[in-house]
Structures are given as structure tokens and as C-alpha cells.
Q: What sequence folds into this?
């Protein structure tokens, strides 16, 4: 299930204002490296300059119970590893792959 979509932004303050107006809510997380909104269980995140992974377009994250197993499954099916599993804090693990057309797909496992 897709529950998180991250958007790279060049101006965090400007983007925060737009997404606050769009969602009708204040950010749930508001820091210099990430601003996150919770809209009825859908997580919308703003990542300044695409973050350490250098995002250049929005990435939808599929929440999975076992990220290593799902990575093995999707790469066996033809996806290519882009950003290997890493802990982004609190035991949350993320990774990205690309599909055969180069679209970036995110995987996320919560602790």
C-alpha cells in the first residue's frame, strides 16, 4: 500500500505554505531537513534539495512488512536497485528501485 509520497523542493518555506494550504493542515513534522503532513493517514513529505538521495521527482513509498524480502522479489522481477536499504531514524527503513522504464519506486518498512 502506498502511504507516503515525498516531494523534493527547492524552497522549503514556500513549499510548506503551499502544501499547508493544499492539505488544510499544519505540518505534523517541521524541521530544516523534512516537513511532513498527515492527511487521513497519507503521509506527504517535503525534502529540501531532494535530500541525501538526490531526488529529482516525487517518490511514492510502498509500505511493506519485510523490506529485504520485497527488494529481492522486485529485483528478481526486473527492478534495478537505486538506493539500498538505510535507516532514516526510529528504525524506519527505506530503499528505492527503478522499474524497467526508469520510474523510481520507494519501499518503506516501519519498526
A:
Amino acid at each position: 500500500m502506498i502511504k507516503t509520497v515525498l516531494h523534493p523542493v527547492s524552497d522549503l518555506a514556500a513549499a510548506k505554505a503551499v502544501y499547508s494550504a493544499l492539505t488544510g493542515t499544519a505540518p505534523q513534522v517541521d524541521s530544516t531537513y523534512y516537513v511532513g503532513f498527515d492527511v487521513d493517514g497519507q503521509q506527504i513529505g517535503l525534502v529540501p534539495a531532494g535530500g541525501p538521495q538526490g531526488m529529482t521527482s516525487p517518490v511514492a513509498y510502498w509500505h511493506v512488512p519485510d523490506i529485504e524480502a520485497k527488494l529481492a522479489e522486485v529485483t528478481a522481477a526486473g527492478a534495478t536497485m537505486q538506493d539500498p536499504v538505510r535507516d532514516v531514524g526510529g528504525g524506519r527503513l527505506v530503499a528505492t528501485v527503478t522499474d524497467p522504464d526508469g520510474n523510481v519506486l520507494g519501499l518503506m518498512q516501519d519498526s
Notes: The mean pLDDT is 94. The CA atoms of residues 36 and 104 lie 20 Å apart.
